[in-house]
Structure formats: C-alpha cells, structure tokens
Design goal:
Blueprint (H helix, E strand, L loop, with lengths): L1 H16 L7 H14 L3 E5 L5 H7 L7 E6 L2 H13 L6 E5 L2 H4 L7 E6 L6 H8 L3 E10 L6 H4 L7 H16 L3 E6 L5 E6 L6
Parallel strand pairs: 1-2, 1-4, 2-3, 4-5
Antiparallel strand pairs: 5-7, 6-7
The protein binds S-adenosylmethionine.
S-adenosylmethionine (SAM) binds next to α3, β2 and α5.
Length: 202
C-alpha cells in the first residue's frame, strides 16, 4: 500500500508539473470505491495518460485480473510504463497505442468494468463500440461528463458546444436506454456510473 501511495503521489506531482489531465482527488476516491466493489477480472480503460487511473484500477482487480488500456500519446505511454513498473503492476496491464475509436472495435474479451476518459466528444461512440464486449452487470464509468458545469447551465463558449452536445447525447443514452442503470455524481467534473443489465435481463 505504501508503494502504491508513493507512486500515486509521484504521479500527481508529475501531472501537475507537466499539465497532464488525471482524475482529480475527489473523483479518484469514488472511482476507487466503485472499482473495489466491482472487483473486476477484466477492465478496459480508454485514455491512459500517465497511468494514474490505470494504477487505481490495477490495485482493485480480482486475482488474476487484467487492465487493457488505450492511449494515443506515445510520450505519455512511456511515462505510464515507468510509473506502472515502479508500482509493480505492469504485468497486469496491457497498453494499446492508438486512436481509441479505431482500437476499441478490435479489442477482444468481455469486460467487467470500462472506464471512459479520452476524447469527450467521442464517449457515445466508444460506448457503442464496446457494447458487445460488456459482461452482464458490467460497470461503465465516464469521467468529466458535466464538463465544467456547462452540461447543466448551457453556457458553454461556442468552441465547446459540439463537445457539450455530444456529452449530453452520452448522458441521454445511458440514462434512457433500459439496458443501463445510471447515476451521475456531481463531484470533480462529473462522473457517470452505469451498470449494464445485459440484453436479456431487462
Ligand atoms: C483525461 S486524460 C486520461 C487520464 C487518465 N484516465 C487518468 O485519470 O489518470 C485523457 C487521455 O486520453 C488520450 N486521448 C484523447 N483522445 C484519444 C483517442 N482518440 N484515442 C486514444 N487516446 C486518446 C489523451 O492523450 C489523454 O492522455
């Protein structure tokens, strides 16, 4: 645990210094709680950055579990490997380099937990592409869904309006589609937690 916390602290300092967006502390607490409760065997993370949330996921895997994580920025992947090695969890992690929109359809396996934290305008596209890879009861966590409060107050500057529209479409989908049961937490930048009920268990 000390090793985990030491590496997390080092990652926080690195993220702050080099302006890398990572899950914020408040959201990380809830994220860890939900992940620990899910105790997943197989996790898909979309948006690794330097591996901060990846490490939280790895620390809460079921025995023999694995995290598959996707990132397109090669410099960040180098740092993620560095930190995850230092934390002693790299063996439980598969890092895939590439554009998530292209990579997700090709990943194999049935996922017990999916963490969506890459391009905000693509969340619904990612979810649609991962739907046939969800195990019944899978948990889908999406970060930043309230996007600086603009999702609720409709005051986004013009250049962010497409992202706002698409995040709303994501939230509409996971709250209206009967295959999902969703709760939106107003912490950090907003976190949506959806449970997939499966195709046959409505
Ligand atoms: C918010 S950061 C992820 C933070 C990380 N999940 C954490 O909390 O520690 C988003 C990451 O997604 C990556 N990203 C953005 N668009 C992507 C895409 N289309 N495919 C793959 N990665 C993408 C960015 O390079 C960035 O590192």
């Amino acid at each position: 645990m000390d090793r985990l916390n030491a590496v997390l602290t080092e990652m926080e300092a690195y993220a702050e210094k080099y302006n890398v967006p990572i899950i914020n502390r408040e959201s990380a607490q809830l994220f860890t709680k939900i992940t620990a409760e899910a105790n997943p065997k197989l996790v898909l993370e979309i948006g690794t950055a330097i591996g901060y949330s990846t490490l939280l996921l790895a620390a809460n895997l079921a025995p023999g579990g694995k995290v598959v994580t996707i990132e397109q920025d090669e410099e960040r992947i180098v740092m993620a490997k560095h930190f995850l090695t230092k934390a002693g969890v790299l063996e439980q992690i598969e890092i895939i380099t590439g554009n998530a929109g292209e990579v997700v359809p090709a990943v194999g396996g049935k996922y017990d937990l999916v963490f969506i934290d890459a391009a905000k305008g693509q969340y619904l596209d990612y979810l649609r592409k991962v739907m046939d890879k969800l195990s019944p009861g899978a948990v889908i966590i999406a970060d930043n869904v309230l996007f600086r409060g603009w999702i609720l107050n409709n005051e986004a500057p013009r250049r962010f309006r497409t992202i706002v529209k698409r995040l709303k479409a994501y939230l509409d989908f996971v709250t209206c589609d009967p295959r999902f049961k969703t709760k939106v937490y107003h912490i950090g930048d907003g976190m949506a937690v959806s449970r997939y009920r499966g195709e046959t268990n409505l």
